[in-house]
């Protein structure tokens, strides 16, 4: 685990060193859990968004896009339940004066039991070698069974306390499990309290004439209050979907793990409106489609898993997360939920206006059910970075740091490198670049040795480099270098675009989804 944490630290510093992610307001010593995307980061982020948007809106003729405002009428958040129920259970340590989420402390404790079990299994695997029967060992080892029993009992208590919003029970679990504050090392805890996560601000010109409004904590409500506008103006027939990418804001008290949990973040959400009674089939359908979308990136099926929710929100009748294996364990990157007709019914009730769908075939009006797919852009970004970051031992004894990004997501697709800064090579390189820059993002670089330039491009994940040398001026060929294999081949300039374009555009990824 410690080794994985070291890898994660390296990824965080790599992100800063190579212009992917900077701490926000760093000049003024930063702002907690807020980050800025640098020159390479913004390209990677835009490519992730493009891949999602095209897979939703371009590949489905019954899904359209929307961009709703961040500020919304405050009653919307009353209707959605966010004003009354969008809370985190918080606990303070009196000695360190630090504040924690009680649920996170308990979930970390559950993870510790899992780690103990895995350690026992790893020791046994080493001991028994090829004859090791893991399934049998897990069923018979006294130590494993003891850890498993403690873990299961803790999880049961935790679920019961969370389902019943029993704050006293949460505190009791923390005391019984002897969970200590990581900073002070003490168990001097306050009671658990609820804290609303919405950012509140004022709209209006004068203090007495202003009204309280909120920064949206999710993008979904903008879709719900517009669904009938979209349906009527687009003449959409159920089933149909509305997709949106946008910023959301949560006043996270315990924001951690770099960009995994932030106070200002971006969501890619699609709400799919269906006929009541068909929702579970559509839920299963979207589960498969979303997993296929993730796996098309080629990170290996073993790094993904579904985590079905046992504790459902009171309005949902099915929910699952797609989890990705980060250096700090399997973590949620996307949620798929069957939200029934709760949101639309609430907005009808609070607005006093009918927003039922009229079915022209059956001549009946009804409130549609909704399947939601919701993915955090920043979490998705982090999963891509964590998988792509590699340190490779080369045959000459050197180590190279390379980002093996899927070529379609890479910030720069092609680096154009003249071998030296004279003899007409830079001019020839510029000519090639000026032709290719209309088709994909290219970068021109002439400083340092060719080897150093290759290393720099490896570090930002550029899939291809071309070197222009003296022979190029006579044979019109360049040396094309592949990032992953480091193989080099001579190719005609006239064939560059066709050789590279298919591999580096999002179209290639989208074709895998058909």
Any overview of this molecule?
- The mean pLDDT is 90.
- Helix 2 (39-58) packs parallel to helix 18 (506-513).
- The chain has 18 helices and 23 strands.
- Helices cover 40% and strands 24% of the residues.
- The chain is of the alpha+beta class.
- The protein has 3 domains: 1-77 and 197-393, Bira Bifunctional Protein, Domain 2 (BirA Bifunctional Protein, domain 2); 87-195, Herpes Virus-1; 405-513, Rossmann fold (3-Layer(aba) Sandwich), CATH 3.40.50.
- The protein starts with a helix and ends with a helix.
- It is globular, with a radius of gyration of 26 Å.
- A hairpin with a 4-residue loop joins strand 14 and strand 15 (364-366).
- A 7-stranded mixed β-sheet has the order 3-9-10-16-13-12-11, sandwiched between helices.
């Amino acid at each position: 685990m410690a080794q994985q944490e070291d890898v994660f630290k390296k990824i965080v510093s790599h992100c800063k060193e190579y212009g992917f992610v900077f701490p926000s307001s760093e000049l003024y010593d930063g702002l907690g859990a807020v980050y800025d995307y640098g020159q390479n980061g913004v390209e990677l982020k835009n490519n992730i968004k493009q891949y999602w948007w095209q897979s939703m809106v371009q590949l489905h003729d019954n899904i359209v896009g929307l961009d709703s405002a961040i500020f919304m009428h405050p009653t919307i958040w009353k209707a959605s339940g966010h004003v009354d129920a969008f809370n985190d259970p918080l606990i303070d340590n009196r000695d360190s004066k630090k504040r924690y989420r009680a649920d996170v402390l308990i979930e970390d404790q559950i993870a510790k039991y899992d780690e103990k079990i895995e350690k026992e299994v790893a020791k046994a695997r080493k001991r028994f070698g090829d004859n090791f029967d893991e399934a049998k060992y897990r069923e018979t080892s006294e130590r494993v069974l003891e850890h498993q029993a403690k873990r299961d009992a803790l999880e049961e208590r935790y679920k019961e306390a969370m389902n019943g919003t029993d704050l006293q029970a949460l505190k009791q679990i923390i005391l019984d499990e002897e969970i200590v504050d990581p900073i002070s090392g003490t168990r001097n805890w306050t009671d658990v309290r609820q804290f609303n996560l919405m950012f509140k601000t004022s709209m209006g010109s004068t203090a007495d004439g202003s009204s309280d409004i909120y920064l949206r904590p999710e993008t979904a409500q903008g879709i719900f209050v517009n669904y009938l506008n979209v349906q009527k103006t687009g003449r959409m027939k159920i089933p149909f979907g509305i997709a949106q990418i946008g910023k959301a804001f949560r006043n996270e008290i315990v924001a951690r793990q770099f960009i995994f949990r932030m106070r200002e973040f971006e969501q890619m959400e699609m709400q799919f409106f269906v006929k009541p009674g068909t929702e579970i089939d559509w839920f299963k359908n979207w589960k498969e489609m979303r997993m296929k979308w993730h796996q098309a990136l080629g990170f290996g099926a073993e790094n993904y898993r579904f985590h079905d929710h046992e504790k459902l929100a009171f309005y949902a009748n099915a929910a699952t997360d797609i989890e990705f294996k980060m250096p700090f364990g399997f973590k949620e990157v996307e949620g798929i939920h069957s939200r029934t007709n709760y949101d639309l019914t609430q907005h009808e009730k609070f607005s006093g206006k009918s927003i039922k769908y009229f079915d022209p075939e059956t001549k009946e009006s009804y409130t549609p059910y909704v399947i939601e797919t919701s993915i955090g852009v920043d979490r998705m970004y982090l999963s891509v970075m964590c998988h792509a970051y590699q340190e490779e031992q080369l045959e000459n004894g050197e180590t190279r740091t390379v980002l093996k990004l899927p070529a379609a997501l890479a910030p720069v697709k092609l680096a154009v490198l003249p071998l030296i800064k004279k003899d007409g090579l830079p001019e020839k390189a510029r000519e090639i670049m000026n032709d290719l820059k209309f088709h994909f993002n290219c970068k021109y670089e002439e400083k340092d040795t060719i080897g150093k330039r290759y290393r720099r491009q490896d570090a930002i994940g550029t899939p291809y480099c071309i070197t222009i040398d003296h022979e190029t001026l006579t044979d019109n060929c360049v040396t094309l270098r592949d990032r992953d294999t480091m193989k080099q081949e001579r190719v005609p300039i006239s064939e560059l675009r066709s050789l590279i374009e298919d591999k580096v555009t999002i179209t290639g990824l989208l074709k895998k989804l058909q």
